[in-house]
Design a protein that fits this description.
elongated, 76% helix, mainly alpha
Protein backbone atom coordinates (compact mmCIF):
# COMPACT_ATOMS: atom_id res chain seq x y z
CA UNK A 1 0.00 0.00 0.00
CA UNK A 2 1.49 3.33 -1.02
CA UNK A 3 0.38 6.69 0.39
CA UNK A 4 1.68 9.80 -1.33
CA UNK A 5 0.55 12.76 0.76
CA UNK A 6 2.17 16.00 1.75
CA UNK A 7 1.86 18.51 4.57
CA UNK A 8 -1.25 18.50 6.76
CA UNK A 9 -3.04 15.89 4.61
CA UNK A 10 -0.17 13.44 5.24
CA UNK A 11 -0.27 14.19 8.98
CA UNK A 12 -4.06 13.75 9.08
CA UNK A 13 -3.80 10.35 7.39
CA UNK A 14 -1.13 9.26 9.87
CA UNK A 15 -3.19 10.52 12.78
CA UNK A 16 -6.30 8.65 11.64
CA UNK A 17 -4.33 5.42 11.27
CA UNK A 18 -2.59 5.77 14.61
CA UNK A 19 -5.45 7.06 16.79
CA UNK A 20 -8.54 5.60 15.12
CA UNK A 21 -10.80 2.98 16.73
CA UNK A 22 -9.13 0.07 14.94
CA UNK A 23 -5.49 -0.32 16.00
CA UNK A 24 -4.89 -3.79 14.54
CA UNK A 25 -2.86 -3.30 11.36
CA UNK A 26 -0.91 -5.66 9.22
CA UNK A 27 2.43 -4.65 7.68
CA UNK A 28 0.88 -3.60 4.38
CA UNK A 29 -1.85 -1.59 6.14
CA UNK A 30 0.53 0.56 8.14
CA UNK A 31 1.12 4.04 6.74
CA UNK A 32 4.65 4.34 5.44
CA UNK A 33 5.54 6.89 8.09
CA UNK A 34 5.79 4.27 10.82
CA UNK A 35 8.17 2.02 8.94
CA UNK A 36 11.75 2.72 9.99
CA UNK A 37 12.79 4.06 6.61
CA UNK A 38 9.97 6.65 6.72
CA UNK A 39 9.98 7.52 10.42
CA UNK A 40 12.31 10.50 10.08
CA UNK A 41 10.45 11.78 7.01
CA UNK A 42 7.19 11.60 8.93
CA UNK A 43 8.75 13.48 11.86
CA UNK A 44 9.81 16.26 9.53
CA UNK A 45 6.38 16.48 7.82
CA UNK A 46 3.94 15.94 10.71
CA UNK A 47 3.38 19.15 12.73
CA UNK A 48 1.96 17.38 15.81
CA UNK A 49 4.61 16.60 18.48
CA UNK A 50 2.35 13.92 19.98
CA UNK A 51 2.00 12.22 16.61
CA UNK A 52 5.77 12.37 16.06
CA UNK A 53 6.30 10.71 19.44
CA UNK A 54 3.88 7.87 18.61
CA UNK A 55 5.32 7.48 15.13
CA UNK A 56 8.89 7.03 16.33
CA UNK A 57 7.70 4.77 19.16
CA UNK A 58 5.98 2.41 16.69
CA UNK A 59 8.94 2.27 14.31
CA UNK A 60 10.68 -0.62 16.11
CA UNK A 61 7.42 -2.59 16.00
CA UNK A 62 7.16 -2.10 12.27
CA UNK A 63 10.79 -3.17 11.83
CA UNK A 64 9.85 -6.62 13.15
CA UNK A 65 7.21 -6.97 10.43
CA UNK A 66 9.07 -6.77 7.12
CA UNK A 67 7.25 -5.67 4.01
CA UNK A 68 6.32 -8.31 1.50
CA UNK A 69 8.12 -6.62 -1.36
CA UNK A 70 11.38 -6.55 0.66
CA UNK A 71 11.19 -10.32 1.31
CA UNK A 72 10.77 -11.09 -2.34
CA UNK A 73 14.10 -9.46 -3.10
CA UNK A 74 16.08 -11.75 -0.75
CA UNK A 75 17.98 -14.53 -2.55
CA UNK A 76 16.96 -18.04 -1.55
CA UNK A 77 19.98 -20.25 -0.82
CA UNK A 78 19.84 -23.86 -1.95
CA UNK A 79 19.64 -26.42 0.85
CA UNK A 80 21.79 -29.43 -0.05
CA UNK A 81 20.45 -32.87 0.77
CA UNK A 82 22.88 -35.47 2.08
CA UNK A 83 23.08 -37.11 -1.36
CA UNK A 84 23.81 -33.81 -3.06
CA UNK A 85 26.46 -32.93 -0.48
CA UNK A 86 28.20 -36.27 -0.99
CA UNK A 87 28.57 -35.47 -4.69
CA UNK A 88 30.49 -32.26 -4.01
CA UNK A 89 34.23 -31.88 -3.68
CA UNK A 90 33.75 -29.54 -0.72
CA UNK A 91 32.19 -32.30 1.42
CA UNK A 92 35.16 -34.63 0.98
CA UNK A 93 37.80 -31.93 1.33
CA UNK A 94 36.21 -30.72 4.57
CA UNK A 95 36.01 -34.30 5.84
CA UNK A 96 39.66 -34.95 4.97
CA UNK A 97 40.86 -31.69 6.52
CA UNK A 98 38.79 -32.21 9.66
CA UNK A 99 39.89 -35.83 9.97
CA UNK A 100 43.57 -34.91 9.65
CA UNK A 101 43.10 -32.23 12.30
CA UNK A 102 41.70 -34.85 14.65
CA UNK A 103 44.73 -37.06 13.98
CA UNK A 104 46.91 -34.36 15.51
CA UNK A 105 44.56 -33.38 18.34
CA UNK A 106 43.92 -36.89 19.61
CA UNK A 107 47.59 -37.92 19.31
CA UNK A 108 48.64 -34.90 21.38
CA UNK A 109 45.97 -35.59 23.98
CA UNK A 110 47.14 -39.18 24.41
CA UNK A 111 50.92 -39.01 23.97
CA UNK A 112 52.12 -35.44 24.66
CA UNK A 113 52.82 -35.88 28.38
CA UNK A 114 54.60 -39.19 27.80
CA UNK A 115 56.79 -37.57 25.15
CA UNK A 116 57.61 -34.60 27.38
CA UNK A 117 58.47 -36.88 30.31
CA UNK A 118 60.37 -39.69 28.59
CA UNK A 119 61.61 -38.03 25.42
CA UNK A 120 62.37 -34.50 26.61
CA UNK A 121 63.16 -35.10 30.29
CA UNK A 122 60.48 -32.90 31.85
CA UNK A 123 58.72 -33.86 35.06
CA UNK A 124 55.05 -34.74 35.08
CA UNK A 125 54.21 -31.47 36.85
CA UNK A 126 56.13 -29.44 34.24
CA UNK A 127 54.38 -31.31 31.45
CA UNK A 128 51.08 -30.61 33.18
CA UNK A 129 51.83 -26.89 33.14
CA UNK A 130 52.35 -27.06 29.36
CA UNK A 131 49.01 -28.81 28.93
CA UNK A 132 47.37 -26.20 31.16
CA UNK A 133 48.77 -23.43 28.96
CA UNK A 134 47.51 -25.30 25.90
CA UNK A 135 44.02 -25.40 27.43
CA UNK A 136 44.16 -21.67 28.14
CA UNK A 137 45.20 -21.12 24.53
CA UNK A 138 42.26 -23.23 23.40
CA UNK A 139 39.82 -21.07 25.37
CA UNK A 140 41.44 -17.98 23.89
CA UNK A 141 41.02 -19.46 20.41
CA UNK A 142 37.30 -20.01 21.00
CA UNK A 143 36.88 -16.39 22.10
CA UNK A 144 38.94 -15.21 19.14
CA UNK A 145 36.71 -17.19 16.78
CA UNK A 146 33.60 -15.66 18.36
CA UNK A 147 34.97 -12.15 17.89
CA UNK A 148 36.00 -12.85 14.30
CA UNK A 149 32.60 -14.33 13.48
CA UNK A 150 31.76 -14.17 9.77
CA UNK A 151 34.21 -11.39 8.95
CA UNK A 152 36.81 -13.78 7.55
CA UNK A 153 36.65 -16.75 5.21
CA UNK A 154 36.30 -19.82 7.43
CA UNK A 155 38.04 -21.97 4.83
CA UNK A 156 41.17 -19.80 4.96
CA UNK A 157 41.05 -19.62 8.76
CA UNK A 158 40.86 -23.42 8.99
CA UNK A 159 43.79 -23.79 6.58
CA UNK A 160 45.91 -21.39 8.64
CA UNK A 161 44.95 -23.23 11.83
CA UNK A 162 46.26 -26.47 10.32
CA UNK A 163 49.58 -24.74 9.62
CA UNK A 164 49.60 -23.66 13.28
CA UNK A 165 48.92 -27.28 14.33
CA UNK A 166 51.85 -28.41 12.20
CA UNK A 167 54.32 -25.84 13.55
CA UNK A 168 53.19 -26.41 17.12
CA UNK A 169 53.59 -30.17 16.84
CA UNK A 170 57.09 -29.77 15.39
CA UNK A 171 57.98 -27.49 18.32
CA UNK A 172 56.82 -30.20 20.70
CA UNK A 173 58.66 -32.94 18.83
CA UNK A 174 62.06 -31.26 18.66
CA UNK A 175 61.87 -28.96 21.70
CA UNK A 176 65.33 -28.03 22.95
CA UNK A 177 64.24 -25.09 25.12
CA UNK A 178 61.26 -24.35 27.32
CA UNK A 179 60.26 -21.53 24.94
CA UNK A 180 59.52 -24.13 22.28
CA UNK A 181 57.18 -25.85 24.72
CA UNK A 182 55.32 -22.60 25.29
CA UNK A 183 55.18 -22.04 21.54
CA UNK A 184 53.67 -25.50 21.09
CA UNK A 185 51.07 -24.88 23.79
CA UNK A 186 49.94 -21.56 22.31
CA UNK A 187 50.09 -22.48 18.62
CA UNK A 188 48.32 -25.80 19.07
CA UNK A 189 45.83 -24.59 21.70
CA UNK A 190 44.73 -21.43 19.90
CA UNK A 191 44.45 -23.27 16.57
CA UNK A 192 42.36 -26.00 18.19
CA UNK A 193 39.97 -23.56 19.86
CA UNK A 194 39.65 -21.36 16.77
CA UNK A 195 39.22 -24.14 14.22
CA UNK A 196 36.91 -26.44 16.18
CA UNK A 197 33.65 -24.43 16.13
CA UNK A 198 34.25 -23.45 12.50
CA UNK A 199 33.95 -27.07 11.39
CA UNK A 200 30.19 -27.07 11.89
CA UNK A 201 29.73 -23.46 10.81
CA UNK A 202 31.48 -23.90 7.46
CA UNK A 203 29.32 -26.93 6.63
CA UNK A 204 26.21 -24.91 7.44
CA UNK A 205 27.46 -22.12 5.16
CA UNK A 206 28.17 -24.54 2.32
CA UNK A 207 25.23 -26.95 2.52
CA UNK A 208 22.53 -25.11 4.45
CA UNK A 209 20.92 -26.08 7.73
CA UNK A 210 17.89 -28.15 6.72
CA UNK A 211 19.87 -31.39 6.24
CA UNK A 212 22.90 -30.41 8.33
CA UNK A 213 22.29 -33.08 10.97
CA UNK A 214 22.42 -35.89 8.42
CA UNK A 215 25.42 -34.37 6.65
CA UNK A 216 27.28 -34.00 9.96
CA UNK A 217 26.33 -37.56 10.89
CA UNK A 218 27.88 -38.96 7.72
CA UNK A 219 30.94 -36.78 8.25
CA UNK A 220 31.32 -38.06 11.81
CA UNK A 221 31.64 -41.63 10.54
CA UNK A 222 34.62 -40.51 8.46
CA UNK A 223 36.05 -38.42 11.30
CA UNK A 224 36.09 -41.44 13.59
CA UNK A 225 39.04 -42.79 11.59
CA UNK A 226 40.98 -39.63 12.41
CA UNK A 227 40.10 -39.85 16.09
CA UNK A 228 41.29 -43.46 16.28
CA UNK A 229 44.19 -43.17 13.86
CA UNK A 230 46.15 -40.36 15.54
CA UNK A 231 47.00 -42.16 18.79
CA UNK A 232 47.57 -45.45 16.92
CA UNK A 233 50.02 -43.95 14.41
CA UNK A 234 52.00 -42.09 17.07
CA UNK A 235 52.00 -45.05 19.47
CA UNK A 236 52.98 -47.70 16.90
CA UNK A 237 55.82 -45.61 15.50
CA UNK A 238 57.01 -44.83 19.05
CA UNK A 239 57.14 -48.56 19.85
CA UNK A 240 59.07 -49.16 16.64
CA UNK A 241 61.55 -46.28 16.97
CA UNK A 242 61.75 -45.93 20.73
CA UNK A 243 60.56 -42.28 20.77
CA UNK A 244 57.81 -40.09 19.37
CA UNK A 245 59.84 -38.08 16.89
CA UNK A 246 58.94 -40.07 13.78
CA UNK A 247 55.29 -40.40 14.79
CA UNK A 248 54.83 -36.71 15.59
CA UNK A 249 56.76 -35.65 12.49
CA UNK A 250 54.47 -37.83 10.38
CA UNK A 251 51.40 -36.28 11.96
CA UNK A 252 52.82 -32.78 11.38
CA UNK A 253 53.17 -33.63 7.68
CA UNK A 254 49.57 -34.85 7.63
CA UNK A 255 48.50 -31.58 9.25
CA UNK A 256 50.10 -29.75 6.32
CA UNK A 257 48.07 -31.90 3.95
CA UNK A 258 44.98 -31.00 5.96
CA UNK A 259 45.73 -27.33 5.38
CA UNK A 260 45.77 -27.97 1.63
CA UNK A 261 42.44 -29.85 1.90
CA UNK A 262 40.79 -26.91 3.62
CA UNK A 263 42.29 -24.47 1.13
CA UNK A 264 40.76 -26.24 -1.87
CA UNK A 265 37.38 -26.82 -0.17
CA UNK A 266 35.62 -24.00 -1.98
CA UNK A 267 31.85 -23.45 -1.68
CA UNK A 268 29.92 -25.96 -3.81
CA UNK A 269 27.74 -24.97 -6.72
CA UNK A 270 24.06 -25.81 -6.76
CA UNK A 271 23.12 -29.09 -8.46
CA UNK A 272 21.84 -28.83 -12.03
CA UNK A 273 18.33 -29.86 -11.01
CA UNK A 274 18.18 -27.04 -8.44
CA UNK A 275 19.44 -24.51 -10.99
CA UNK A 276 16.78 -25.57 -13.48
CA UNK A 277 14.07 -25.34 -10.83
CA UNK A 278 15.24 -21.84 -9.86
CA UNK A 279 15.08 -20.73 -13.50
Amino acid sequence: MHISLEGNEYADQCSQRLTGPDHHFTADQLPPCIHPQHARRCASQCPSPDLIHRTLWLAPIASNTPLQEDNSKQPIAHEFTAKEALRTQAFWMLAIGHGLALLVVTAVNVHAITHMKEGLGYSVSEAGLVIMLMTVGQMGGVLLGASMGDRYDKRVVAALCMVSHMVGLLCLTYASHVAMMWAFALLHGVAWGLRGPYMQAIRADYFGTRWLGRIMGISTVLLAFGQMGGPLIAGMLADWQGDYRLGFSTLALLAALGSVAFWVARPPTRPKAARKAAN
